[in-house]
Amino acid sequence: MNVLFTEEKLTKYAEQFLKANFNIDLSIPIKRNNRLRSSLGRYVMDAAGNPSRIELSGNVLTYAKESTIIGVLKHECIHYAYHIQGKDMRDGHPQFEKALEQFNAPSTETLKVGKFFIFECVRCKKRGETRLKRLAIKPNDYRTHCCQEKLRIVGETIYRG
Ligand SMILES: [Zn+2]
Ligand SMILES: [Zn+2]
Q1: What would the pLDDT profile of 8-29 be if each residue is shown by its tens digit?
Q2: Mean per-residue pLDDT of the chain
Q3: Which domains can be identified in the chain, with CATH numbers?
Q4: Ligand that comes closest to the CA of residue 83
Q5: Confidence check: pLDDT of 100 > 90
């Protein structure tokens, strides 16, 4: 558990980052979201298209190294800053990507982070990995892609981004 990064600390960091680099006051909360699985973080707008909040996944806050957490936070802050400034804030837009590079933030919110289970095909011994906890608990419910055979869990590994 990474106790360093409370919502309070993340908020402080974001406030300073936005003030120093964009001269913007942070007016939305920074939240930990333990159910956010599709990405490490996201910038959320309300139904009217106004800034609502920035979320960081519980996964990234628990497992990622500090530089990755800060990188993802900066990425979301730049979405927010660009939105406030009326710039194109879409992922992949050249201007947005340039800002990510300038501030040393990752250009993707889907870096590999967290605990993965390593499994092995019982027939060909090919190995794979999965985040599915269910597979680790009930491996007999699953079959491998390679041989349509049973698999067994042989270990686990943690990616820190
Ligand atoms: Zn993004
Ligand atoms: Zn196989």
Answers
A1: 999 999 999 999 999 999 999 9
A2: 95
A3: 7-102 (3.30.2010.10), 113-160 (no CATH)
A4: 1
A5: yes
